[in-house]
């Protein structure tokens, strides 16, 4: 029961890389923190350490465009695919002009290049064929395969006829009806939103890859799965009353291939999931009139990023699946902006890089957080799902999501929440920057509270609204770390900590000379907000000033302020700290009970209790579920 919380953003202007000189694709050198940007005729490098942008290659032939690029980190090469079919290699040892080599040619426009996860194989694809090259042997060809064939593949499915027409009773029409062949033909052979290009996705182990292409024979988009030797394994089943669109991504864990598909004559847009044998295995239905332009799984397969395009507007959506339900965790609108390309970071699981057509490089980083509001009499857990906020009241029952004790329904997607435990107040931050303020009275017309559990006598209702024009938030893409203390609403935007008074409608701002990693609130009678920087240093906000309090040995992804201004912190590497002392190096979660007891669990299925009064371990319980 966790939400995605945005905690870090970055925007870099790309100068005049707009219009005719628009960035179309990009590649990342993670080690050197360099972004390679591709326009129609040039390659640029953006150094993230100093935001320096420079041109590193320009095509001498203006009649030929650069279609795609791929960075090979092990040999420090940049491979380019051209519209005339040429494959180029840029080496970065010395002078670039002396290190531009032609690898080969496919004699027709290269649509995409993709490197295998182990960086051993480079694939180039056109609209009719695919070429596999070995990066270890000076780009020696491994295989060249035609795409548009009638073959299904080596993993041909065997149909034994159970439930088919031939095994059914046909009454008066006789046995001849069972022998009549039926051919399923999609009523819509090709989507009007299809980009017309071939696309490549690798499975994370590097044994299989998939290509989505448009057949020149029947104009259907088809998905074929190959092994790393270039041998066809399987082909997707044709969608009934629908068609496949161009967006495709292979889940990093290797289970499923996600592809945009339309059904019901184009009225139903889905992300359909295919197994490696080409058969459909579930779907995610998207409620939009636009189309899916980009699709990408993050490093650990917990987040599916979807870019939905509608005319000149784009929307970045982050989805997550749990308990057989898909949750829309984040939805950021980009009005009058097109997202050109997206790519998840390979080191930081929840960091997304993307380029927009208004000449900007952006990165956004999220963290998984359990958002809980608890007092001596009540314990609530909040779960976001698009326009819905599910609230589970554990005082009465432990209902698993997507079921809840009650839910709040808003007209727009909810990006974040901020709660005040003492005053039972809740603020919903909506995707248009407006703030929906919740209390205990009846809700506004466009906002509904639906109670699912009869035992619930007190629920949250949207009682007032701060519109987007009056919102203290200026840019919803850069606003992070939302907190609420009494009547003060805290958030960070553009390197400033903003404090907005809900009663007086006034805002004060503090300049931060550090990047805030996470925040916490103490449990004292007079509450304070605490900030942790990227190095683990803790600051307290007091009278609109920052005061340094303590420094963790390592930055902690989660921390709490406990009795007598002590600090408990947990790193992403399972290290648990009490102030500067390490309590455990195998902790996966912790909880503060009654302000005096620290309870934490370990990777070895142990539960430990430690007193925060005398700093002594009071008990330890070991339990392992056997499944019996």
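Q: What amino acid sequence fits the structure above?
A:
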């Amino acid at each position: 029961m966790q939400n995605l919380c945005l905690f870090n953003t970055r925007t870099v202007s790309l100068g005049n890389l707009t219009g005719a000189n628009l960035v179309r694709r990009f590649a990342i050198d993670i080690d050197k923190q360099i972004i390679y940007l591709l326009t129609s005729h040039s390659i640029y490098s953006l150094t993230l350490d100093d935001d320096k942008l420079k041109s590193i290659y320009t095509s001498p032939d203006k009649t030929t465009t650069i279609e795609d690029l791929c960075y090979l980190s092990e040999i420090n090469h940049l491979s380019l695919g051209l519209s005339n079919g040429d494959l180029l290699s840029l080496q970065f040892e010395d002078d670039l002009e002396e290190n531009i080599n032609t690898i080969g040619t496919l004699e027709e426009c290269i649509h995409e290049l993709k490197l295998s996860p182990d960086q051993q194989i480079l694939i180039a694809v056109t609209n009719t064929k695919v070429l596999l090259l070995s990066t270890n042997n000076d780009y020696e060809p491994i295989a060249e395969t035609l795409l548009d064939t009638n073959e299904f593949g080596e993993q041909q499915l065997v149909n034994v006829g159970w439930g088919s027409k031939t095994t059914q009773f046909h009454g008066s029409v006789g046995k001849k009806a069972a022998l009549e062949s039926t051919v399923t033909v999609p009523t819509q052979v090709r989507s009007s939103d299809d980009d017309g290009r071939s696309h490549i996705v690798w499975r994370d182990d590097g044994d299989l890859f998939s290509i989505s292409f448009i057949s020149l024979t029947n104009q259907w988009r088809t998905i074929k799965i190959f092994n790393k030797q270039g041998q066809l394994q399987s082909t997707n089943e044709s969608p009934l009353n629908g068609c496949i669109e161009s967006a495709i991504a292979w889940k990093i864990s290797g289970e499923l291939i996600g592809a945009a598909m339309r059904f019901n004559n184009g009225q139903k847009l889905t992300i359909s999931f295919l197994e490696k044998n080409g058969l459909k295995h579930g779907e995610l239905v998207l409620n939009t009139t636009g189309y899916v332009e980009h699709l990408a799984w993050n490093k650990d397969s917990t987040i599916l990023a979807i870019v939905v395009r509608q005319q000149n507007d784009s929307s970045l959506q982050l989805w997550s699946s749990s308990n057989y339900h898909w949750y829309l965790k984040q939805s950021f609108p980009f009005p009058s902006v097109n997202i050109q390309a997206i790519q998840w970071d390979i080191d930081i699981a929840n960091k997304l890089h993307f380029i927009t057509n208004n000449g900007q490089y952006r990165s956004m980083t999220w963290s998984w957080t359990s958002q809980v509001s608890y007092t001596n009499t009540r314990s609530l857990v909040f779960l976001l799902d698009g326009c819905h906020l599910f609230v589970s009241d554990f005082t009465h029952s432990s209902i698993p999501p997507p079921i809840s004790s009650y839910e709040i329904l808003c007209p727009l997607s909810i990006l974040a929440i901020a709660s005040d435990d003492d005053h039972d107040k809740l603020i919903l931050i909506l995707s248009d920057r407006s703030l929906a303020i919740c209390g205990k009275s009846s809700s506004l017309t466009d906002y509904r509270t639906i109670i699912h559990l009869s035992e619930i006598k007190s629920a949250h209702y949207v009682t007032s609204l701060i519109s987007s024009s009056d919102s203290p938030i200026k840019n919803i893409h850069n606003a992070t770390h939302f907190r609420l203390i009494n009547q003060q609403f805290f958030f960070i935007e553009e390197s400033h900590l903003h404090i907005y008074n809900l009663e007086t409608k006034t805002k004060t701002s503090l300049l931060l000379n550090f990047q805030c990693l996470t925040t916490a609130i103490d449990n004292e009678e007079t509450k304070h907000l605490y900030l942790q920087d990227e190095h683990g240093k803790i600051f307290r906000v007091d009278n609109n000033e920052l005061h340094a309090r303590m420094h963790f040995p390592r930055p902690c992804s989660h921390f709490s302020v406990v009795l007598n201004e002590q600090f408990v912190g947990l790193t992403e590497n399972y290290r648990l700290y009490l102030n500067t002392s390490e309590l455990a190096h195998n902790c996966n979660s912790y909880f503060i009970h009654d302000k005096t007891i620290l309870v934490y669990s370990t990777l070895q299925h142990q539960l430990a209790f430690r007193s925060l009064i005398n700093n002594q371990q009071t008990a330890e319980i070991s339990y392992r579920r056997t499944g019996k």
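Q: And what stands out in the fold?
A: The domain at 512-627 is CATH 2.130.10.10 (Methylamine Dehydrogenase; Chain H).
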